[in-house]
Fold:
Amino acid sequence: MKKIQWILCAVLAIGALSGCEKDLQLYDTDTCWLNFYYDIENRSKFEDRFSRDAYSFVYGEDDRTRDTLWYEIQAMGFVYDHDRQIAIEQVTSDGNQAVPGKHYVAFDDPSLSGLYIMPAHQSRTKIPVVVLRDASLKQQTVTLKFVIKANDSFIPGYEEYNARYLTITDMLSEPSKWSYAYPLPGWTGYYNSLSDWFGTYGVVKHQFLIEKTGKKWDDEYIDSLLDGVSSFTYLNYYAAKLKGLLAEENAQRQAQGLDVLKESDGTVVEIPY
Structure:
């Protein structure tokens, strides 16, 4: 009896699926959406900090006047057999606004038109943001917020994937990943950031770390430090060593009649770990 019931259920299920199949509509819209691509495991875990980047000319050669950052972008919809133009525009954000032609090359500059393209037969590509080394960046940090703009080929996709923020300066400034929460591989719910070992960011602290290690302590270097579970053991050692070097530095300064290292606001430089 049970066998007959199972066969009957299977027949009914197949019939139901067949009926549903007749109701399916083919995807036939010409609309194509465009998003900035983020390499994160779960879209539901997306946070605004993933869209923020920092760039400083201070790390490069003294005669560098411009640099190019590349942002990955992904389309949703049909793939076409011809190149499609991508439109990007600056929008207002908090802080000092980046000025086109002064702090970055305008997105509609003719020299870049051939680079804002989704190539034929592709749904993902990279677009450039060309930053410029203006003298004003020695005294300030500016913010460039840019978004995907609708055109004849694409419209903006998911709202949370439509904007990027880039700070541009020619001074030491806080790397975007200093307080970035890195997930421990395989340990769901556990996160660490560089600030867990080195505390609150400060320019004087940043300069001290550069001088003692010969490293930039920029986003790329921070990524390398927090890449994998084993790196946390190394960071325990690394922070302890630099804390010791900081104590030695302050002892030498005091022996010379100088004050301990402090930030511009008077905060004592500390490595708390």
Notes: Residues 1-22 have pLDDT under 50 and may be disordered.
